[in-house]
Write a structure and sequence with these properties.
The protein is an alpha/beta fold. The chain has helices spanning 36-41, 44-47, 77-88, 105-115, 175-187, 203-212, 231-241, 258-270, 328-341, 360-376, 393-405, 465-469, 481-495, 524-536; strands spanning 13-15, 23-24, 27-28, 33-35, 59-63, 94-100, 126-129, 190-194, 216-223, 245-250, 274-276, 283-284, 287-294, 299-306, 318-325, 354-356, 382-387, 408-413, 430-435, 440-441, 445-448, 455-459, 471-477, 501-504, 510-512. The strands form five sheets. Strands 12, 16, 17, 18, 19, 21, 22, 23, 24 and 25 form a ten-stranded mixed sheet that branches. Strands 8, 9, 10, 11, 13, 14, 15 and 20 form an eight-stranded mixed sheet that branches. A three-stranded mixed sheet has the order 5-6-7, with helices on one face. It is globular.
Length: 541
Amino acid sequence: MPGSKFPTPCREFLSLPEELRLTHENQPVAWTGVPLEQVIAHNLEFLFPGMNIQEYHPFRITRDADVELQEDEADDLLQAIEEVLRQRRFGGSVVRLEIQASMPETVRNTLIRGLGVEDREHYSDVYEVEGMLGLRDLFAFMDIPLPELKDPPWMPVIPSRLQRVGDLPEDAAAAEEGEGFFAAMRQQDLLVHHPYHSFSATVQRFVTQAAHDPDVMAIKMTLYRTSGDSPIVNALINAAENGKQVAVLVELKARFDEENNIIWARKLEKVGVHVVYGLLGLKTHTKIALVVRKEADRIRRYVHVGTGNYNPKTARLYTDLGLLSCREELGADLTELFNYLTGYSRQQTYRKLLVAPVSLRDRMIAMIRREAEHCKQGFPGRIVAKMNSLTDVQMITTLYEASCAGVKIDLVIRGMCCLRPGIPNVSENIRVISIIGRFLEHARIFYFQNQGQEEVFIGSADWMSRNLNRRVEAVVPVEDAEIAKDLQEILGVMLADNRQAWDMQSDGHYIQRQPSPNTPEQSSQRLLMDMASQEAAGKRS
């Protein structure tokens, strides 16, 4: 295998020449290399000539990347963010020190003192690691062309109801094609589930067709993170050039995407898009889009409320949900929410949406307590919630109280979870699982049994203090009975996972589920791919 065919995966590894490659069954392997830190470690005499090298010990530090910004004192928020980004390049304070377990105590203590990190008995910023320190660098090995060692390729499908809609219009003359998409939304709400459903054929198509449709009067969106070559932003630019009113909230404080968002904000402003940067003291994390369209009998509003960013690249890697609808109350709510975001109102109540920081926390707590009250009255109570993280103290305490009242609670928490399940007289009715697979679980779903009057919600917020108190979030009730059942089915598939699911123990540790003897594997993500394929082929009822 010629060396040029398999380049070094990344700069943290050094590719060895072909003659030094390892072999397997008398055949050269695809790639052989060594970590760059080992090359440096074995050649330290060239970096420190004349010195006696006695030993070496790699370490890795993580610095605080939060931007400290006095928003109320900034005359120009965009310029203030640019200045903070310049300061970030010099590095913030060290918040984590990773060392190899073999590091001697004297060297360890020298680093701790020099970097100013904490190393206490019960809490430490110092982590001992066995093996490599920078595991993120291993992602680069996915670029090596060895398909037999990777997951089979997955091609997102077009939802069956959208397969009858024509191709994307190229200009205003093709608006009749675009009408098909809006007609499908008028017929019934649409649920999209990425990456099982195609992002380009659903959400991206919604925005792009709105940009070219001559009957569309206005488009409003929030952008938290998007790709560097964003077709969504290009569609918004086209819409403005086509004479439509376009308003976009660009969140300049999206961590590590600040610079990218500044670039997009300036491009949008250049073509006449009304760009705003959000509310003082709050990050705008909600994922919403509003299209206002002039039709024969009325002005109609079409909406998208999602759980993930308007980013076609992450839409192939993250699992996210979105609701496409033209329900009048949702259109009115999004109109008022955009007025709130652009500074034209101080809206505190909404017809359908649960909005942070104004109503989301109180409504969620009220619904949890309602399940507890049903149990106290002798009826069953049931809650299923899926999210990225659960850390808010009040939400956790309320879930504990519901568990003590007899509510059966299942939580699908991919990341941080400060709740502890299965503790007698505290959380014995709570189960927590984390699903780790080829896709990053990112969708948020909330289900409440409500004594048979089931309620299901999706949205952008986790149950974290930052989401509930310091971010603008939107969670939407799913009122279409068919879609609500689809969401319950998704939750059921995840709770039955016996391959990718990890059960959280009462002490905070996780144990991976294994199928019992004579029981087939049930990988939730694999099953959801199969279900999407069957739907696209028209095989699902």
